[in-house]
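step=predict obj=NAD(P)-dependent alcohol dehydrogenase n=335
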Amino acid sequence: MKVNGYAATEQKAKLMPYSYDLGEIGSEEVDIKVSYCGICHSDLSMINNDWGMTQYPIVPGHEIIGEVIAIGNTVKNLSVGDKVGLGWMSASCMSCDQCMDGEHHLCSKSEATIVGRNGGFADKVRGHWSWAIPLPEGIDMSKAGPLLCGGITVFNPIILAGVKPTDTVGVIGIGGLGHMAVKFLKHWGCKVIAFSSNPSKKRSILNMGASQVIDSTSIEELESINGKLNFILNTTNVSLDWNSYLTALAPKGKFHTVGAVLEPMEIPAFSLIMGEKSVGGSPIGSPALTKTMLDFCVRHNIYPDVEEFPMEKVNEAIEHLENGKARFRIVLKNK
């Protein structure tokens, strides 16, 4: 099957029209006609080879919403015509301890949608049936793409940390990931404290459901919430004054990072020990949890704030993101 997409042929290159053939479909694979695809910062990292694992040419895109147009002969639970989403992962081995335990996203033999293969900045994409997540009835397909990566990335920690509706929680960095975390936690029932260094975002952050916005550059404002937060989610990828946030945690509080901070995180031992606090991290979530998240979103009408660009203007959309102008996620639409 022929695919028409947009690819970078070298590090930091502009995307150019690119066609390739998918070959014969595998017995457990599905082909998806791409309707929408979000742009994630991870796409930029892969285009720029920030993580040292990009293979060129690369067609980015891993927040895919579309329709199943072909299936292998042993595909389960999907039929041609089904509306599905495909996120960061496109396959897992289905036989290791992690897969058998329902933690497919922790499979050591997993296949990422844009690592060594081509993704959703195209008219079609292929993946294993288990990661083609059926979309719930009534979902807004034009806004659902970012939920398949950014959304599940911030939803999974809520489950892992056992966050309760009565908790007071914090979210660091109210961008593409953070703004979805604020919405999830608000509808979870929590009191949400947002940490942001951009005062121009304050009104929109409060409208998302935050109870309070803390200026993360102000020592005084950070100190004002010492010992008050049961859970803090970090969505930024830069080094911070980690001890200030650990101090903001209540006893037994949990600090969780999904931001890919490249430098080692300096965590003072006594800040953890004296309050029985903990630090953790996570990637995306399992297919089953992703489906649960989508159901939760439809139930509470939770969607990312998106700006839509036509697929053929992908370079303009990427530049918009690189310049920090996205409010708060970008979605590409196929004709």
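step=describe
The chain has two domains: 2-149+285-333, 151-281.
step=end
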